Amino acid sequence: MSAGRCIVLVMDSLGIGAAPDAAGYGDDGADTLGHIVAETRDLRLPVLAGLGLARAAEAARGQPLAHDIGDVNDNAAWAHALPVGRPKGSTGGHWEIAGLPVHEDWGYFGRDSADPYPAGLLEALAGQAGIDGVITVGRASGTAVIAEHGEAHVQSGRPIVYTSADSVLQIAAHERVFGLARLYAVCEAARTLCDAYRIARVIARPFVGEGAGDFRRTDNRRDFAMPPSAATLLDRLQAHGVPVITFGKIGDLFAHRGIDTQHPATGQEQVFDALADTLANRPEPGFLFANFCDFDSKYGHRRDVAGYAGELVAFDARLGRFLAELSPNDRLIITADHGNDPTAPGSDHTRECVPVLLHGAGVSPGNHGRRDGFADVGATVAAFFDLPATGLTGRPITYETDS
């Protein structure tokens, strides 16, 4: 086993150009990073560019970014990965990173706006959760849902159920009026009911405030994912004696399986702080797996180009300090789970390639080419810890430069 730690940072939704099959998803021309750069003429990301982000994007999109975001370092190592699983969301993307591509698509609610949920589902939910019904909404924006239905929820005590173009059932309730623990219990009941429909996630969406103009979501969101259908990289590392430590919503996405320690931090600074604390206090070998969800949830879905650009700048600055906290035996991989182009129509994820930036122990500089599946990230982690490849998909990124 390696004497160092392997860290994977997932910049949630940072796609770098349309995947070859994007047209089949209605996402032809999607390019999260490329369009943000094009619309933010002064955007500079010197640390990410130094690690090879612009080079990875150029390889994925077939042309350079609209303007220079920084110089590449001589020791930079990069690749770009194509999705092979059917879904284009966080659960499928993270499972694919961990060696379990989802080849059968998830189920979806809300495609029939007049009847968005299967007959009897919400009645069964009310019965199992012990609540007096729900406020039913179809596909909608979460911020709009609480603005439009929050007061009715407060008056009736019924949680708000809604969905989106993703494979999700979302349940919103006021933290003080309804109670956070009670909301989580309702979501747990919904999770058991949604398994039959292959719904990837049930999401608790708590909010606070005194009225429609004041309601706002809190950081106490929780995701209740379908359990992985087979062993993932996390399970196999754990069985191999490698501690698995997760940050952000990773634990939720894997149904808390194959994980030794969880840091359910929210927000970029909190995730980085938890990572830094772990690096400082756990020098022994281990796998650190972190998700930075604000890119997606706060800016991608809301089609906020300026906000997304600002989040990238803040991430880049903190990443520079984070690199200094790594030991010589550590390896860092930065990637993404899907795209969410803030210039695209609607509010859905976009089908895109993702960057793979490698730094640290045993990394050979240069372009490591096109990777056919996000699972090459997980395979590279497995190889770092000398984990047998049996049962894992993906091809490790070699120590030699791929053309």
Automatic annotation (TrEMBL):
Residues 5-387 form the Metalloenzyme domain. The keyword Manganese applies. Its cofactor is Mn(2+). It comes from the Bacteria. Binds 2 manganese ions. Keywords: Cytoplasm, Isomerase, Manganese, Metal-binding. GO terms for cellular component: cytosol. One of its GO terms (biological process) is 5-phosphoribose 1-diphosphate biosynthetic process. It catalyses: 2-deoxy-alpha-D-ribose 1-phosphate = 2-deoxy-D-ribose 5-phosphate; alpha-D-ribose 1-phosphate = D-ribose 5-phosphate. Mn(2+) 2 binds at D296, H301, H349. Isomerase that catalyzes the conversion of deoxy-ribose 1-phosphate (dRib-1-P) and ribose 1-phosphate (Rib-1-P) to deoxy-ribose 5-phosphate (dRib-5-P) and ribose 5-phosphate (Rib-5-P), respectively. HAMAP family: Phosphopentomut. This is Phosphopentomutase. It comes from Salinisphaera japonica YTM-1.
